[in-house]
């Protein structure tokens, strides 16, 4: 916009509004961190003393450890499976044109738009009917459905930065399709593949609704939190929330760094030796 | 592009197709079948019985919940759109490129924090002796009951949707042709009028899609209405969780779920066709 049209007051007003928006978004996250270190059971102002008793309580709780183990197993298996499947689908969309492709893409990308209650109920009823519900692998099956679209989208974006003739050039130089995949496509996609691994793990790490429906007795950590939420007030939720936040943020920042490296040197990574 | 079907191509394309047909499409189709099953002696039996449909759709409780859910989600979509617009507008037009990138990064962070924990945290803020009422008491106001009310539900819904709405609005605002805005200014169009008659029509698709996503997300959320709204009267999603978890009435829960899907499809279709309709001038 041309400078004479700028009004300082409106600019500062809007910037203040942006700050307020961030305050609204981050207030609950910050509060959960602060109250996880507060000695009182019932959160109130002014704060009680600083204390780590709630961290100790969580540390000593075998149920939390069990939930954490389920969450970690689920997260790792889901991220590997969803990323592999998502990579295949992204490559398919990148390279092939075929009859029914819109249907294929819809199947691949639609799951995140279905409300989780409905997805949870459908999964529970279906998996129970074929005797696959109430186990850890039930959660894994459901989470792969929900996470694969994210992996596909991330890797597809990366592929769209690649010159399609690179692959054709490898074929012309005598590489088989498999060799071209190994030496051209996969190296080019590597940062996006790692980003997809971290993002899908973070999504699985936080998902509670579908897991709540299908997990039965094998509850993941977020499902345990849902249980705590139904019970009495307990700062343990804040402790677990702070922990989950730190882990998820580490994963997201790692993914972000990988994707940033991509945009910093997009050409160099695509070179074929 | 080679057209023949090869082992190589299948290796990459089939896993997604197989997985999503088996574990995404099949469960949704099964939901339709399930809604016609009957429950006898607390056991579900395959059947073709329209009883579940007539029972659920014939009950006043269901329609109250339906109306309540639709209204809550529609209000949430409107409130979120209106509150998010100045924020996304500011980020798109008033920030430097570096600051804008940081703002976008910060907007992505909430997606990876636990929604449950944030809702619990809002309970700390909103309860009768919570942070906000404690602050208000110091200046001699309140206490205002905010928890277990529709206001609480809205706070929860905004927690869920606000960042997404900002991001979706932002991505369409960034692509608004700046020369159009300059032209409007040169033609002595006022600031607000420029926003309403130039910026918003250009970004219409993104604005409508953002509101639509807010509607979809809140329509299926059971956490905010339950833990910030008190759960009474229930929303459709609370009805589903209650019906599912309290025994073998899954066929009735399936009826509710299918009604929700039908509603969402209608809303999505209406919103998308409105978004892409040519302006009739």
Automatic annotation (TrEMBL), chain A:
Q: Which InterPro entries match?
A: Bact_Polyamine_Transport (IPR051789), MetI-like (IPR000515), MetI-like_sf (IPR035906)
Give the UniProt family note: Belongs to the binding-protein-dependent transport system permease family. CysTW subfamily.
Protein name per the record: ABC-type spermidine/putrescine transport system permease subunit II
Q: How does it sit in the membrane?
A: Multi-pass membrane protein
Q: Which organism is it from?
A: Mycoplana dimorpha
Cite the PROSITE patterns for this sequence: ABC_TM1 (PS50928)
**Is Transport tagged as a keyword?**
yes
Assigned keywords, A-Z:
Cell membrane, Membrane, Transmembrane, Transmembrane helix, Transport
Q: What's the superkingdom here?
A: Bacteria
Q: GO cellular component terms?
A: plasma membrane
Q: What Pfam families would the database entry show?
A: BPD_transp_1
Q: What is its main location?
A: membrane
Q: Which GO terms describe its biological process?
A: transmembrane transport
Occurrences of domain ABC transmembrane type-1 (ranges) = 68-255
* Family matches, as PANTHER family: PUTRESCINE TRANSPORT SYSTEM PERMEASE PROTEIN POTI
Has the keyword Membrane been applied to this entry?
yes
Where found, per UniProt?
Cell membrane
Q: Where are the transmembrane segments?
A: 12-35, 72-91, 103-130, 136-155, 192-217, 237-259
TrEMBL record, chain B:
Q: Which domain of life is it from?
A: Bacteria
This protein's record includes keyword Transport:
yes
> Which residues span the membrane?
12-37, 65-90, 102-120, 151-175, 195-219, 253-276
UniProt membrane topology term: Multi-pass membrane protein
Q: Which family does it belong to?
A: Belongs to the binding-protein-dependent transport system permease family. CysTW subfamily.
Q: Where is the ABC transmembrane type-1 domain?
A: 66-273
Keyword field contains rRNA-binding: no
Q: Which UniProt keywords apply?
A: Cell membrane, Membrane, Transmembrane, Transmembrane helix, Transport
Q: Which Pfam families match?
A: BPD_transp_1
Specify the taxonomic lineage. Bacteria, Pseudomonadati, Pseudomonadota, Alphaproteobacteria, Hyphomicrobiales
Q: Might you name a Gene Ontology BP term for this protein?
A: transmembrane transport
State where the protein is found: Cell membrane
Subcellular location, principal = membrane
**Matching InterPro entries, A to Z?**
MetI-like, MetI-like_sf
Q: Which GO terms describe its cellular component?
A: plasma membrane
Name of the featured protein: ABC-type spermidine/putrescine transport system permease subunit I
Which organism was this protein described from?
Answer: Mycoplana dimorpha
């Amino acid at each position: 916009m041309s400078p004479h049209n700028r009004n300082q007051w409106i600019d500062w007003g809007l910037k203040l509004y942006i700050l307020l928006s961030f305050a609204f978004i981050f207030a609950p996250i910050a509060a959960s961190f602060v109250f996880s270190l507060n000695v009182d059971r019932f959160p109130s102002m002014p704060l009680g003393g600083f204390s780590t008793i709630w961290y100790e309580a969580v540390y000593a709780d075998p149920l939390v450890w069990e939930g954490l183990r389920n969450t970690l197993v689920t997260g790792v298996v889901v991220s590997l499976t969803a990323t592999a499947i998502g990579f295949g689908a992204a490559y398919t969309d990148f390279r092939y044109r075929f009859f029914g492709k819109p249907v294929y893409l819809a199947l691949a990308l639609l799951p995140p738009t279905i409300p989780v209650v409905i997805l949870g109920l459908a999964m529970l009823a279906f998996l129970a009917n074929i005797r696959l519900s109430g186990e850890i692998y039930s959660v894994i099956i459901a989470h792969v459905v929900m996470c694969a679209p994210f992996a596909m989208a991330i890797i597809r974006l990366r592929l769209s930065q690649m010159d399609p003739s690179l692959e054709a050039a490898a074929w012309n130089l005598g590489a088989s399709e498999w060799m071209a995949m190994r030496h051209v496509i996969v190296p080019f996609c590597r940062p996006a593949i790692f980003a997809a691994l971290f993002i899908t793990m973070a999504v699985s790490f936080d998902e509670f609704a579908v897991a709540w429906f299908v997990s039965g007795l094998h509850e993941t950590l977020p499902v345990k939190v849902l249980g705590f939420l139904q019970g009495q007030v307990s700062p343990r939720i804040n402790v677990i929330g702070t922990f989950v936040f730190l882990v998820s943020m580490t994963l997201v920042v790692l993914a972000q760094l990988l994707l940033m490296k991509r945009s910093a040197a997009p050409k160099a990574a695509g070179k074929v030796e | 592009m080679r057209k023949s079907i090869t082992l190589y191509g299948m290796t990459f394309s089939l896993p997604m197709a197989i997985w999503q047909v088996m574990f995404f499409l099949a469960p949704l189709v099964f939901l339709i079948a399930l809604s016609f099953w009957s429950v006898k002696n607390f056991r579900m039996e395959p059947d073709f019985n329209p009883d579940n449909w007539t029972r659920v759709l014939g009950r006043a409780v269901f329609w109250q919940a339906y109306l309540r859910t639709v209204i809550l989600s529609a209000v949430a979509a409107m409130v979120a759109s209106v509150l998010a617009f100045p924020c996304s507008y500011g980020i798109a037009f008033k920030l430097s490129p570096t600051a804008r990138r940081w703002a976008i990064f910060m907007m992505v962070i909430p997606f990876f924090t636990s929604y449950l924990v944030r809702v619990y945290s809002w309970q700390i803020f909103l309860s009768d002796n919570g942070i906000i009422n404690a602050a208000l008491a110091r200046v001699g106001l309140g206490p205002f009951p905010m928890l277990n009310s529709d206001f609480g539900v809205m706070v929860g819904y905004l927690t869920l949707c606000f960042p997404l709405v900002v991001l979706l609005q932002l991505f369409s605002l960034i692509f608004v042709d700046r020369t159009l805005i300059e032209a409007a200014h040169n033609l002595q169009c006022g600031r607000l009028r420029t926003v309403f008659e130039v910026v918003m029509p250009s970004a219409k698709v993104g604005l409508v899609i953002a509101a639509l996503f807010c509607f979809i997300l809140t329509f299926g959320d059971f956490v905010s209405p339950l833990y910030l709204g008190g759960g009474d009267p229930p929303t459709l999603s609370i009805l589903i969780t209650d019906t599912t978890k309290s025994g073998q009435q899954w066929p009735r829960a399936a009826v509710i779920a299918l009604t929700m899907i039908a509603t969402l499809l209608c809303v999505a279709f209406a919103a998308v066709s409105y978004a892409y309709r040519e302006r009739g001038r």
